[in-house]
Amino acid sequence: MTIDTGNTGFMLLCSSLVMLMTPGLAFFYGGLVSRKNVLTIMMQSFVSMGWTTVIWFAVGYSLTFSGDVGGVIGNLDMAFLHGVTLDTPSPTPGIPLIVHIAYQMMFAVITPALITGAFANRITFKAYLAFLTLWLLLVYFPFAHMIWGGGLLQKWGVLDFAGGIVVHNTAGLAALASVLYVGRRRVLDSGPHSIPLVALGTGLLWFGWYGFNAGSEFRVDSVTAVAFLNTDVAASFAAIAWLAIGWWQEKRPTFVGLLTGAVAGLATITPAAGYVSPLTAVIIGIAAGGVCYFAVTLKNRLRWDDALDVWGVHGVGGFLGIVLLGVFATTAFNPAGTDGLVAGNGAFFFKQLVAVAFSSVWAFGFTYAVLWLIDRVTPVKVDEAAEETGLDTALHGETAYLGTD
Fold it and tell me: Does the pLDDT at position 382 exceed 60?
């Protein structure tokens, strides 16, 4: 196999950027919770970096990218990376399979970590580890295979450039199922304990997202460049849209609103980044800022205790991005893609709608079932005393700061 050193180096850099997103998420979520729960939620992100890697090495990569069983999941032929050598080619010519394994592993690491914002301050660590394991096996690996690993949705013609369905929609609907199963917090936070930490996390996420989206082209070409630009454009327009709507609705501009809007734009452009024009990225960014803002407003009215708005930002954002990809996809900006509804391809738009509806139902149903099953073995929700004390002390015997709230 001939190695393309430029593309290989680029993909190693992108893998590093996507890896950085999980610590970024830890800071983002950590700043949004109270002082007495910051270590717990940050640990949930960091433990995914360790435990998801173990599962990915053992069976995850194989179940996602080796073979095909019924169009839904792979096989175990490459379990424990069996047969992988320096010369094993990847799905993209010129890049070693080892690099493909590393890059895709970083996606698997961050996806379940996204869900943790929904059940912040009220889930036991033992239950979370079980949830992390089962959710990867029953939700993430099947959808990564179905869309990226040669499964039925990919064969049908569904497109998802960097994870609108595979990452954001599935995590967001899993968050909603978690909120409805676990129930509301008994002790509510007074609000974000450190907005500077939220800003740091947003910056790391935004920076890492260039590897997340541009890297999903798996080579350096003009599509890589447009995916990079679209990522920044959508995030920026979404941040300003959220800020403006929040200013109008709440009578004041808020920093947390600006930051949350940026993340909503990043999540929403993800499936479309390499298939649409920069002008479309503007439209997607503005739509993300507005739709996700009002999704969070609806969540508040319904009294769903999605603590850190995972459903409103990632679930709704991922759904919206897949649908808008069905509308605006154009071969003018990616000849390997397809045209969407605007260009007269209603069939592709229909496929995107069906796929994201299917992923929503699957992720919600399996997540609810997984939590119910875990609860039969070990309690999912912490007791009231632990909530009152704070999970950092109650579960881990650690504190982030001197004193408490």
Answer: yes
